[in-house]
Specification:
This protein is of the alpha/beta class. The chain has a single domain (15-259), classed as Rossmann fold (3-Layer(aba) Sandwich), CATH 3.40.50. It has helices at residues 24-35, 47-59, 74-77, 80-88, 112-140, 161-181, 199-208, 228-239, 265-270, and strands at 15-19, 39-44, 64-68, 93-96, 143-148, 186-193, 250-253. Strands 3-2-1-4-5-6-7 form a seven-stranded parallel β-sheet, with helices on both faces. Strand 5, helix 6 and strand 6 form a beta-alpha-beta unit. Helix 1 (24-35) packs across helix 8 (228-239) and helix 5 packs parallel to helix 6. GO terms for molecular function: glucose 1-dehydrogenase [NAD(P)+] activity.
Length: 280
């Protein structure tokens, strides 16, 4: 099966909001949703990157709009769903992709302020957007929410306690909302990426690895890093009518990493570092 062969009608006429849309997984999700017919409101904190990403998608025929927002600020995140509704008159898909990783430091050295910031972006903002989206979807009688979690919620890397805890909260929130919103016809699922070779991840490895040592790969059973487009394909499936009988699910996109017994070269090379990095 050619995973690059798209169904251009599957999401035709639907409206989506994607957070963290300026690059990496978020941009790949926007690209895939738009390629399958959705109209997409892209939001990110980085306005310049967001504008460039949107221009690239428009050049390829995508119908997208942008809104710069700091999700940690209530007033800014509260604008997002209303803007999509005003722009296109409906709201069908929410993809909560944006996340703040924080600094790599031991739990004993981590500050309460950083915990609060990580949870503000990763959990509080996700919950707020789910609430706003669900209200719009409830009026239509249908909708799909896809939260981007992480395999780290069950397979944590040391020095990322706050990030790991926030992704655990996302897993629980996904299940809770699947139960509560099902009567309104709203499905809520999660995608759990493993090591994905985004540009940010590659740069983090290049900056952190010993120049004389080969950059670490992955302990995935499929023996490679994933691609952002592969995560986007999973997100799009869960957002589409092809997943109409799926809710409360957590779909790993990790090449089998979460069930692998192989030694993790990423952990061996970077597990003892206490500086900024990009986790799984």
């Amino acid at each position: 099966m050619n995973r690059n062969k798209l169904n251009h009608e599957r999401l035709s006429g639907l409206v989506a909001l994607v957070t963290g849309a300026a690059g990496g997984i978020g941009l790949a999700v926007c690209r895939r949703l738009a390629a399958e017919g959705a109209r997409v409101l892209m939001t990110d904190l980085d306005g310049a990157r967001l504008a460039a990403a949107a221009d690239d998608l428009r050049a390829n025929g995508a119908e997208v709009d942008t809104l710069v927002a700091d999700l940690a600020k209530k007033g800014e995140r509260d604008r997002l769903v209303p803007v999509a509704l005003e722009r296109w008159g409906r709201f069908d898909i929410l993809v909560n992709n944006a996340a703040f990783h924080g600094e790599r430091r031991t739990f004993l050295d981590a500050s309460e302020e950083e915990f609060e910031q990580i949870f503000a972006v990763n959990v509080t903002a996700t919950a707020a957007l789910c609430r706003a989206a669900a209200r719009a979807m409830q009026a239509q009688g249908a909708g799909a929410i896809v939260n981007i979690g992480s395999i780290q919620a069950g397979l944590p890397v040391a020095t990322y306690a706050a990030y790991v805890a926030s992704k655990g909260a996302i897993a629980a929130l996904t299940r809770a909302l699947a139960v509560e919103l099902a009567p309104a016809g709203i499905r809520v699922n999660a995608v759990l990426p493993g090591v994905i070779a985004t540009e940010a991840f590659k740069q983090a490895l290049a900056d952190g690895a010993d120049a004389k040592r080969q950059m670490p790969m992955t302990a995935a059973l499929l023996e490679r890093q994933g691609e952002a487009a592969e995560v986007a394909a999973a997100v799009t499936f869960l957002a589409s009518s092809d997943a109409s009988f799926i809710t409360g699910a957590a779909l790993p996109v990790d090449g089998g990493r979460s069930i692998s017994r192989k030694a993790d070269p990423f952990e061996q090379s970077f597990g003892d570092r206490t500086e900024s990095g990009i986790p799984e």
